[in-house]
Design brief:
With 468 residues, this protein is of the alpha/beta class. It is built from 15 helices and 23 strands.
């Protein structure tokens, strides 16, 4: 089959393209601003990439157009369609489908799908689960919304029965407003956490809870009626409400004192307990209670495909995390100590807070955290959670916000932080603010779900140049 993917350079669609190519399909694709690293990865696989969404691509005559959720029916100010290829597909009556649906129908059939859902930690927990299964010799397939450092690729088919997938609650496509994850029909569903996000498509938390329940509805029953499992964070009231709507599967909880799987010890050195009994021990370089919870979720999911908790815990000791999760981008030596620049994907206020808290627990007295962030997600651009920013940044020493292009006043939102917070309208101005404030021993934590204008490299360059 020849498929042509619209929006191929996104993490999910790029991963889908790699999987389709690996399974023997002919794959071509297009995107606006065909950009690395995904473009480089795809071209290395022999996938032809086309710049833009021009209608002339109909001449490729694929068997199916696979449409990413970047595509819409919107028009430019002059009235021309923003995605003329999509308009041409519709006008010609040609076959098209969404990425999640194509994946479900062509690559997930017959697999034991482990779907990892949640507002936070999906990528990391998907990578952890994949690594546990790999270390146990199960050769899993996976599709991760990032690049797990243990594998070096975001997706592969795998030789085993299990397929681990990051299960996003964002909508599927312009013609299918259900969450992506309802297409995956998992046998194991991980509900990592749940709070309000994606204000551009969800009106409130209850609307997201309803979508999570649609996922629960697709998991096979328990006992004599099937072999499905729902792994749920026992600390989350929102997830308790989801399960209260109805659950037909075996449930395994983690995190709370009365949960099936709990942890005892520090975030980077802890016992794993199953129903109160120590069944494994994890020692790893990851920080933060959120990663400890991610580990428990991964262990509970892996147990469902036959990996014992002690084997899973041992595997996590060699887990190398995911790119852009507390990733070290560089250090600059100064007379008073190193200045360390870190990169993280955190963009929701809760994720920012947990990321900061995790880093804070690893630092010595007197070492400072300089948080550099941009409200870039659709939810943050709308200003829906601006009031939570001072709370999310409570444990940083200084905060620097890129406020350019927002429809709300970032300086006003951060005013409760007083002189600890600064706002800049451009990346260069932001870099100047940070470099003027940095001193030896500081940790500069850059947080964004985008490229952030190369702020990491710029910071390292100017700090080096200034010779602090």
């Amino acid at each position: 089959m020849h498929i042509h993917i619209l929006g191929i350079c996104g993490t999910f669609m790029g991963g889908l393209a790699a999987l389709a190519r690996e399974s023997g399909h002919k794959v071509t694709g297009c995107d606006a601003g065909v950009y690395p690293p995904m473009s480089d990865q795809l071209r290395a696989l022999g996938i032809e990439l086309i710049e833009g969404f021009g209608a002339e691509q109909l001449a490729l005559k694929p068997d199916m157009f696979v449409v990413g959720n970047v595509v819409s029916r919107s028009h430019l100010p002059d009235g021309t369609p923003k995605f003329p290829l999509m308009e041409a597909i519709l006008d010609a009556g040609l076959p098209y489908t969404s990425g999640p649906q194509w994946l479900s129908e062509h690559l997930l059939q017959g697999r034991h799908v482990i779907a990892v859902a949640g507002t936070h930690g999906k990528t990391t927990t998907t990578a952890m689960t994949s690594w546990i299964l790999e270390a146990a010799g199960l050769q899993p397939g996976f599709l991760v919304g990032g690049v797990p450092l243990n594998f070096g690729v975001s997706a592969r088919l795998g030789q085993g029965k299990a397929f681990v997938i990051e299960a996003d609650e964002y909508d599927t496509a312009f013609f299918d407003k259900r969450s992506k994850f309802v297409h995956y029909r998992p046998r194991t569903a991980v509900l990592n956490n749940l709070e309000f996000d994606h204000a551009d498509i969800f009106d409130n938390l209850a609307a997201i809870e309803r979508q999570f329940h649609h996922l629960v509805r697709t998991v096979p029953g328990a006992g004599a009626h099937g072999s499905g499992r729902v792994v749920v964070n026992g600390l989350e009231e929102s997830l308790a409400r989801v399960l209260h709507m109805g659950c037909w599967s075996e449930v395994r909880s983690f995190g709370a004192a009365v949960s099936d799987f709990t942890a005892q010890g520090e975030a980077n050195d802890f016992d794993v307990l199953q129903q109160g009994k120590v069944v494994g021990h994890v020692i790893w370089p990851l920080s933060g209670i959120h990663n400890q919870l991610n580990a428990l979720a991964a262990i509970a999911a892996a147990e469902h495909v036959g990996v014992s908790p002690d084997v899973a815990a041992q595997a996590l000791g060699s887990f190398e995390n995911v790119k852009r999760r507390m990733e070290l981008r560089g250090k600059v030596k100064t007379a008073t100590g190193d200045i360390t620049v870190l990169d993280d994907f955190a963009h929701h206020p809760t994720a920012i807070r947990t990321t900061v808290d995790g880093l804070r627990r690893t630092l010595k007295t007197g070492e400072r955290i300089l948080a550099v962030f941009e409200p870039r997600s659709n939810t943050m651009k709308l200003g829906t959670m601006k009031a939570q920013l001072p709370w999310s940044l409570e444990n940083v020493d200084l905060a620097f916000c890129h406020g350019g292009g927002l429809g709300w006043d970032a300086a006003a939102a951060l005013a409760p932080m007083g002189e600890r917070a600064q706002v800049a309208d451009s990346i260069d101005a932001l870099v100047a603010q940070v470099s003027q404030s940095a001193q030896g021993g500081d940790y500069i934590l850059c947080m964004s779900n985008g490229g952030f204008g190369g702020v990491h490299v710029k910071l390292l360059e100017i700090i080096n140049k200034n010779g602090l």
